[in-house]
Design brief:
Blueprint: E1 3-5, E2 17-21, E3 24-28, E4 34-35, E5 39-43, E6 50-54, E7 72-80, E8 85-92, E9 102-109, E10 120-122, E11 130-134, E12 137-145, E13 154-162, E14 169-177, E15 183-191, E16 194-201, E17 209-215, E18 223-224, E19 230-231, E20 241-251, E21 255-263, E22 279-287, E23 293-295, E24 305-307, E25 406-407, E26 416-417, E27 425-428, E28 440-445, E29 450-459, E30 466-475, E31 478-487, E32 504-513, E33 516-524, E34 531-538, E35 541-548, E36 551-554, E37 559-560, E38 578-585, E39 592-603
Antiparallel strand pairs: 1-24, 2-3, 3-5, 4-25, 5-6, 7-8, 8-9, 9-10, 11-12, 12-13, 13-14, 15-16, 16-17, 17-18, 17-19, 20-21, 21-22, 22-23, 26-27, 27-39, 28-38, 29-34, 29-39, 30-31, 30-38, 31-32, 32-33, 34-35, 35-36, 35-37
């Protein structure tokens, strides 16, 4: 029997909301402070997933500027009422405080590619909302938050009927269920006369799980199942941890499946850490004689390999993937399409690995100091100006991944220049990496514990307030950066007198860990031409390098990649590690840096 392998969407793809419409399955995931907002993937067989679009305009006013790390858009819930897709989600503007300062919104579209209606605010009791459609009626489910001193911060699941046209409340709010353990993320379905309520239980960490309750009446009361449907909390050695936040879907032939989040931890002296963030997994489900859902393999722990649906549809061929969305919609007018100036894989056979769209070149040297690098921006560089194939690919349906992710605002020509230099992206520097407002940063998800990122950069920093380079990024309090910047002449103290025309160009390796940023190493470089920067991640270690005269040279010692995880530090963290490029100009935002040949290779264990 054909099987799927978990996680099916790897890397940062948390809180999956699964729905089937016709022959397609769709999954929407949380985006938090990242754009594009609410990524949506699709599949015909639950095993092979591709990027299908995102909820354009989900951020009111088009921006999430100022939201804290791991704030922004939490846990979207996707649904299909037979004619339109609906999505509800919460924008969270405070994290780690009694007040979440949140707003819940609803948007609809004829197809996942849009156009999506402008978001409309609905009653906002708490985060992780969901919609339930029944015979023309519409219900909003939510967590209720009690911010008061001495109150229960997560004090039950509530439901409010909404007018499907105006989205205004039809009647009062109903309390469905309260529980001693933290429950959230409600999802509701109806089967055999029972209203089945799926609940995330125990928080989002290693105690996470899925609990089920049911009632003969939508408004309750609900009875909890005697044991969890899904959890890995009782087996710390299980390779899929944090299993929870689930949604049930019925496949053809009356088979049932469950989407849920999970994580693949690395063992460290400080305990398990999950730098890849929370990922999307699928489980097969059956129903017992009493009418409760159970995992088909007979265990509460998530299975790594799961039988695929018998009634699965044909996966689209590349030629038909652009038009296979059902239903479809045109790209929104005026959308800023960001090209993918990535280095294509060399001709010839490639190893059998799964990457973020790009295969690791066979024979690539493993060590910083061994092997010759291809000349940058020259006749041998497939991304050099004037070479064929430089037209960038847009965020079009059918991609396995968006071209780039951006922080707190969408890609915008005010800071990204795609025309001045063919085959290159020019970034205009703005705020520093710890800002919550105006990052000039482009990122891609890291999907495996072994990875390598590289990019060619050309820039002329003339002051310590200007920098451009390559990052391993988690958030503003956790990142590793190799930046081309300016510093004083050798032996001179930091005196900030760059206007004298002295000083030198260097690569500065910095590490940010919560409230401390430290300079790890400095390497003198010739910045008169392009420089290739890179980083290799080998499970828990990250090793930065640059290419000089065609040879890789290490910058600094190996660094701890697992600091860029959900599980390190004292603050709530909900995203995942990224490889990114950025530019900074703290004085007048006029400094620019050109980038080409970006490549991210992610190699499964």
């Amino acid at each position: 029997m054909a099987e799927l392998v978990n996680p099916v969407i790897r890397g940062f793809a948390p809180d999956p909301s699964l729905v089937r419409a016709g022959d397609w399955y769709y999954v929407a995931t949380s985006s938090f402070e990242w754009f594009p907002t609410i990524p949506i993937h699709r599949s015909r067989d639950l095993a092979h997933w591709e990027y299908a679009g995102h909820v354009e305009g989900a951020a009111p006013g088009g921006t999430l500027a100022g939201v804290p790390d791991s704030g922004g858009i939490w846990a979207p819930s996707l649904s299909w009422n037979g004619t339109r897709f609906w999505v509800t989600y919460t924008v969270v503007r405070s994290v780690g405080t009694p007040y979440f300062d949140l707003d819940t919104y609803v948007s609809t579209a004829p197809g996942v590619a849009g156009p999506w209606t402008p978001p409309r605010r609905v009653p906002s009791h708490g985060f992780d909302p969901a919609l339930f459609h029944e015979q023309g009626r519409l219900w909003l489910l939510n967590l209720q938050n009690d911010h008061r001193p001495g109150g229960r911060r997560f004090c039950g699941i509530v439901a409010t009927e909404l007018n499907p046209s105006t989205l205004s409340p039809v009647d009062g709010t109903h309390l469905l269920l309260q529980h001693d353990r933290l429950i959230e993320g409600p999802k509701l379905l109806k089967r055999d006369g029972w209203y089945i309520l799926l609940l995330a239980e125990g928080g989002t960490g290693f105690e996470h799980g899925v609990r089920v309750a049911r009632s003969r009446r939508l408004t309750g009361p609900y009875d909890l199942a005697p044991r969890p449907l899904l959890t890995s909390r009782d087996d710390p050695a299980w390779p899929l941890q944090k299993a929870g936040h689930a949604e049930l879907v019925r496949a053809p032939d009356d088979e049932w499946y469950l989407s849920h989040l999970t994580s693949r931890p690395l063992a460290t002296p400080a305990g398990p850490r999950c730098p890849l963030g929370r990922e999307t997994a699928i489980q097969a489900v059956t129903w017992d004689e009493a009418g409760w859902p159970r995992l088909r393999h007979g265990d509460c722990r998530p299975a790594l390999r799961v039988p695929m649906p018998r009634g699965r549809g044909r996966q689209p061929e590349p030629a038909d993937s652009e038009g296979a969305l059902a239903p479809t919609a045109p790209e929104p007018a005026g959308a800023f399409l960001l090209p993918d100036v990535s280095e294509p894989a060399e001709n010839g056979p490639e190893p059998e690995i799964i990457t973020s769209g790009y295969a690791l070149t066979p024979g690539r040297p493993d060590r910083c100091t061994s092997g010759r690098e291809p000349e940058t921006a020259g006749a041998g560089d497939p991304m050099a100006p004037g070479r064929p194939g430089l037209s960038g690919r847009s965020l079009a349906p059918g991609r396995s991944e968006p071209s780039w992710y951006t922080l707190r605002s969408p890609a915008d020509p005010s800071w990204i220049d795609l025309t001045s230099r063919a085959g290159w992206i020019r970034l205009r520097g703005r705020h520093g990496p710890e800002s919550l407002w105006a990052h000039s940063l482009l990122a891609r998800r890291i999907t495996e514990h072994r990875a390598e990122a590289r990019v060619t950069v050309e820039a002329r920093p003339a002051t310590f307030t200007q920098a451009a380079g390559l990052l391993l990024w988690y958030n503003t309090a956790a990142y590793l950066a190799l930046d081309l910047t300016w510093t004083e002449d050798a032996g001179e103290e930091q005196c900030g007198q760059q206007w004298r025309g002295a000083g030198r160009s260097v690569l500065a390796l910095t590490a940010r860990d919560e409230d401390e940023t430290r300079l790890v190493a400095v390497a003198d470089v010739d910045a008169s031409g392009p420089l290739t920067l890179g980083v290799r991640v080998e499970r828990g270690e990250a090793r930065f390098w640059y290419a000089e005269a065609g040879t890789r040279r290490c910058v600094g010692p190996p660094l701890d990649f697992t600091l860029l995880s959900d599980d390190h530090g004292s603050r709530l963290r909900f995203t995942g590690a990224m490889a990114a490029i950025h530019a900074v100009d703290l004085v007048d935002a006029s400094f620019t840096a050109d980038f080409t040949g970006f490549r991210l290779d992610c190699i499964p264990d």
